[in-house]
Amino acid sequence: MSFDLIIPIIITLVGASTPILIAALGELVAEKSGVLNLGVEGMMLIGAVVAVAVMLTTGNHYLAIICAAGASACSALIFGFLTLSLSANQVATGLALTILGTGFSALFGQPYTGQAVPLLRSPFAPELAQHEVLRIFFGYSPLVYFSLIMVVAVWWFLQRTRWGLILRAVGESDHSAHSIGYSVLGVRYLAVAFGGAMAGIAGSCFPFILTPQWVERLTSGRGWIALALVVFAAWKPFRLLAGAYLFGLIATMELYAKAAGGNFRILPSELWAALPYLATILVLVLISMRRQGSTSAPACLGRPFVPSN
Amino acid sequence: MTVKNARAMISRRTALKIGGAAAALPLIGSRAFAQQDTVKAAFVLIGTPDDNGWNYGHDQGRIDMLAALGEDRVETTVVTNVPEGPDSERVFRELAQQGNDIIFGTSFGYGDSMLKVAPMFPDTKFEWCTGYATAPNLSIYNARFHEGRAVLGTIAGMMSETGIGAYIGSFPIPEVFMGANAFHIAARKKNPDFVTKVVYVDSWFDPAKEADAARALIDQGVDVITQHTDGPAALQVAEERGIIGGFGQGADMSAFAPEAHLTSIIDKWGPYYIHAVESVLDGTWEESSSWEGLAAGEVVIGPYNPKIPEDVVAEAERVRLGIIDGSIHPFAGPIVDTNGNVWAEEGDIIDDGEFWADSAWYAEGMEA
């Protein structure tokens, strides 16, 4: 393994990190409003299958991504109706959403298995996108640039806008927000729908960036990593970006080190595979060792809100 | 699930175990060769039949079996997406309770569960694919995939320009060691400096990771990829990157990579499934261990890509036919491993069974 591998490694790791980053950003907003949606994996699968279906029918990547976002947002709204309007348990309902998404995508995707899907390639001219060095900036799918813009957008929205403040207030103290006249459930519905839409776009990354096909359980557990990442990042968008790329780096280095053979196979492959999860546990331990009150989990996370008059 | 329910389930389970054992005792002799008019056969799959690979192959075998024996005589059940490990025990137990006469577990990792469940249901026949241990009502069956890998290795050795090939494996298990070694040894016969990089993705099914493994390998000089996982993800990366190519595993995958798909190893389980279910029908089923390859048609080499030069196709065919008539053996010496141990001298072969029993090594020139 040598230094000329740095650029290919970066390109691969950015691809591997992007779906996790997009899904985690959506989940971060939902959790900031106080809703814990464990259905990310299911929503990603719905997004992935809808993206493939629309792509193979219309041939338009962007339409496919919009439809994927819409379909996953709809599935998130089912979750929202059950947990927000009917106050169902969020953990159980989220798990049910994952099971629903897995099953729905398998059923709906049957006609589309066995077909190759065109990749969504870099929007820049080939001189930039395939340039030896410059491809590190220009060689990515538009979904990658979208994910980076969304990191800034989510941070700006949460920290710099009035709406972001309201959303955080709803997540930190739902009754206070309610008593000064904000619609807690309305805000949460919107946040959950946004989380769903982002999970759908994350799902579309699988056929459009990583492996251009549809097959059942295509996401193979990436949704769970996205969920872990939100906690890992302590609900902060830029930390989320760093965390997603760290996860991607570990996953990518595992494969590059194995492919290099020889001395680069420092760790047994099982340990490589466990590293992202070990890192999450480590960060959780570090966070919980800090003073109480400094954890950034939204205070109302996972708690149903029943408006009282 | 409440505690009450859990208790109820345990007691029901225990009752069945006791009941099953008691009922079986007086019948062991008399039932063994009973003929049957109809058979209920169940198939446990690790993925789904539309993976275009391993699971697809087994399901095609089931369909061939149904066509040969008739749907009026055989009723089949397919359980998909059953994870390997302890959870599969429940599936095998339920299938046996539902009265299936023969249950096929089509993945290596079902073994512990099948070995545990089989003694509880002595009247049910169990068939463990790629397994290594039998019981009075548990047979194992496998295919000599490594024979096909030797044909692929021949093509790789002749066509690779960088002289570096790759073998993307699932887990380090005997079947994968044998396949990787057969590929590499055959390639080295054509190119004595050939290097095979072996990368495990620690999964039978994670398309995104398989694709990233292919990227990592191609970035490090690999120009021929073969994979021992269940889908076309690596082939699609080969197509995208424009390397010399790769091979379909389990089924023809040329639809995914028209340029890169050189040929494929196709699994044909039909002949074995027909034999196994038929022997339940006529009451001749017995504990056995089946391991057929190219000669019996269980392993088939798919069509060659027209871009492969004629002399390469001729050589690949020579190896394929030689393995069928026995004049060529995939593990013909001299074979030395990466640590310098000699496994076969010039003129000797490593018998497939011996290799299987002691498989955890790589031939000289492999990197893992």
- Report on the biggest sheet of chain A: none
Q: What is the number of helices of chain A?
A: 13
- Gyration radius of chain A (Cα, Å) is 20 Å
Distance between the termini of chain A: 66 Å
By oligomeric state, this entry counts as heterodimer
Helix/sheet category of chain A: mainly alpha
Describe this structure in words.
The complex is a heterodimer of chains A (309) and B (368). Chain A is an all-alpha fold. Chain A has helices at residues 6-32, 40-58, 61-85, 90-109, 126-129, 135-138, 142-160, 162-172, 174-179, 184-210, 222-232, 237-260, 269-289. The mean pLDDT of chain A is 90. The model of chain B is unreliable at 1-32 (pLDDT under 50). By secondary structure, chain B is an alpha/beta fold. Chain B has a seven-stranded mixed β-sheet with strand order 12-10-9-8-6-7-15, with helices on both faces. Chain B has a six-stranded parallel β-sheet with strand order 2-1-3-4-5-11, with helices on both faces. A two-stranded antiparallel sheet of chain B has the order 13-14. Chain B has two domains: 34-143 and 269-292, Rossmann fold, CATH 3.40.50; 145-259 and 299-367, Response regulator (Rossmann fold), CATH 3.40.50.2300.
Short summary of the structure?
The complex is a heterodimer of chains A (309) and B (368). Chain A is an all-alpha fold. Chain A has helices at residues 6-32, 40-58, 61-85, 90-109, 126-129, 135-138, 142-160, 162-172, 174-179, 184-210, 222-232, 237-260, 269-289.
Structural topology:
The complex is a heterodimer of chains A (309) and B (368).
Chain A lengths: L5 H27 L7 H19 L2 H25 L4 H20 L16 H4 L5 H4 L3 H19 L1 H11 L1 H6 L4 H27 L11 H11 L4 H24 L8 H21 L20
Helix pairs in contact in A: 1-7, 1-10, 1-11, 1-12, 2-3, 2-4, 2-10, 2-11, 3-4, 3-10, 7-8, 7-12, 11-12, 11-13, 12-13
Chain B lengths: L2 H22 L3 H4 L7 E6 L9 H16 L4 E6 L7 H11 L4 E4 L5 H7 L7 E5 L8 E6 L1 H15 L4 E6 L4 H17 L4 E6 L6 H12 L5 E5 L4 H9 L3 E6 L10 E7 L2 H12 L7 E4 L6 E3 L8 H16 L9 E2 L5 E3 L7 H6 L8 E2 L1
Parallel strand pairs in B: 1-2, 1-3, 3-4, 4-5, 5-11, 6-7, 6-8, 7-15, 8-9, 9-10
Antiparallel strand pairs in B: 10-12, 13-14
Helix pairs in contact in B: 3-10, 4-5, 6-7, 6-11, 8-9
